Amino acid sequence: MPSIIIFTSLILLISSPPLTTANGGDDDNFTAYDVIESYGFPKGILPIGVTGYELDKSTGKFKAFFNDTCSFSLEGTYDLRYKSTIGGTISKGRLTNLTGVSVKVWLFWLNIVEVYVTDDELGFSVGIASAGFPIGNFEMCPQCGCGMDCDGGVGSDRSQGVRGSRSNSFVSSV
Q1: Chain-centroid distance, C-alpha 31
Q2: Class of domain 2-172 as given by CATH
Q3: Tens digits of residue pLDDT in 77-122
Q4: What distances in angstroms separate CA 154 from CA 73, 86, 150, 151, 157, one per listed residue?
Q5: How far apart are CA 4 and CA 102, in angstroms?
Q6: pLDDT at position 156, please?
Q7: Membrane-crossing residues (predicted)?
Q8: Is 77 left (phi over 0), alpha (psi -120 to 50) or beta?
Q9: Dihedral through CA 129, CA 140, CA 136, CA 78, nearest 10?
């Protein structure tokens, strides 16, 4: 029965404008993954392990919290690092002024400053360059330490767990 209430509340949140404060529901029942999805993002942009979040609906300011930093590699190509607190300004299909998330490109760690949804792609910008990937690659959440290549042992939770294949390297946004 509680799952029906949570599901119904989630439907109400998704159907109401994201920046309104009058949604009629109890936000304590929502996770950071629910909030991300209500703004049009797949939950897989957040790794498993978010312990809490803050959302100011009037400004779109969003923060997600982890117990510690989180690092992992996707397909042995991209190394990603999440600080224990990440934040930004969220709106429908766009997360701007992102802080706390970085990607290793060649030998350099670059901050991911924006994530956006366009049609069936998810775009990531590091300011001077961006890359787009099929949104379906982010249906599942990666796990700290092993990304999507976890062996299924203790601590592996594939039920939340980003499947995927790389589509585009970081390219110039000019």
Answers
A1: 12
A2: mainly beta
A3: 789 999 999 999 999 999 999 999 999 988 999 999 999 999 899 9
A4: 19, 26, 10, 9, 9
A5: 37
A6: 39
A7: none
A8: alpha
A9: 30
Q: What is the DSSP pairing of strand 114-118 with strand 121-125?
A: antiparallel
Mean pLDDT, to the nearest integer, of 56-84?
Answer: 93
Residue closest to 150 by CA, chosen among 49, 73, 65: 73
Question: What is the spatial distance between Cα 121 and Cα 134, in angstroms, rounded to a whole number?
Answer: 5
- In the chain, % helix, strand, coil (3-state, to 5) comes to 20, 40, 45
pLDDT score recorded for residue 149: 84
- Beta strands 94-105; 114-118: pairing state: antiparallel
Task: Supply 173's token pair.
Answer: 């946004």
Query: Where are the domains positioned within the chain?
Result: 2-172
pLDDT in tens, 6-35: 333 333 333 333 333 223 334 668 999 999
